Structure formats: structure tokens, C-alpha cells
Amino acid sequence: HLAAFPALQVLDVSGNTRFTPEGLAKLRKLSNLRRLGIGHCHLTDAHLAGLTGLPLTYLYLGENKRLTDAG
User: Fold this and answer.
1) What pLDDT score was predicted for residue 2?
2) Backbone torsion region of residue 62, taken as left when φ is above 0, otherwise alpha when ψ lies between -120 and 50, otherwise beta
3) pLDDT digits (tens), the chain, 71 positions
4) How far apart are CA 51 and CA 57, in angstroms?
5) Nearest-angstrom CA–CA distance, 31 and 53
6) Tell me, what's the pLDDT at 31?
7) Rounded distance, CA 36 to CA 50, Å?
8) Class of residue 14 by CB neighbours under 10 A (exposed 0-12, middle 13-18, buried 19+)
């Protein structure tokens, strides 16, 4: 589904608690993504590993209490 939005620059999916680490990693296909909101999503460090390489200038992670400094 993400292939339909190759120019997407801003995405806020805060509050979505259904993300898997593999599912979140699919956002890497959005090479123009600059701003990402994924607060209140019950994320873990494994979720963040899949975002490596995105050219983000803004990342909102608020209220993801299972994240650690290692993530």
C-alpha cells in the first residue's frame, strides 16, 4: 500500500498499537518521508531498528514507555 505514496513527506500514525517491527520497517520504502509521528504506539527498541536509514528531520516517539536509551 505504501507504494501508492512515494512522495509522502509527513506521516502521523500516533496511537496505532498494532505495529509489528516488520510492519514499521516497511516505512523505509517512503524515501521522501521527513516527519514521522509514532507516539502512543507501544513500541519497543526492535520497532525502531527498522527505521534506520530514513532521512527524518522530525520523529515523535512520546509515550512509548517500552523504549530504552539503547533503542
Assistant:
1) 83
2) beta
3) 788 998 999 999 999 999 999 999 999 999 999 999 999 999 999 999 999 999 999 999 999 999 999 88
4) 13
5) 9
6) 92
7) 13
8) middle
Which string of b and e fits 21-39 if b means at least 16 CB within 10 Å? eeebbebeebeebeebbbb
Cα angle at 33 between 26 and 65, to 5 degrees?
Answer: 65
Return the pLDDT at 44: 96
Rounded CA-CA distance 67/49 in Å is 11
**In contact, 24 and 52? CB cutoff 8 Å:** no
Give the Cα separation of 22 and 7 in Å (integer): 22
Cell of 6: 512515494
By the 10 Å C-beta count (0-12 exposed, 13-18 middle, 19+ buried), 43 is classed as buried
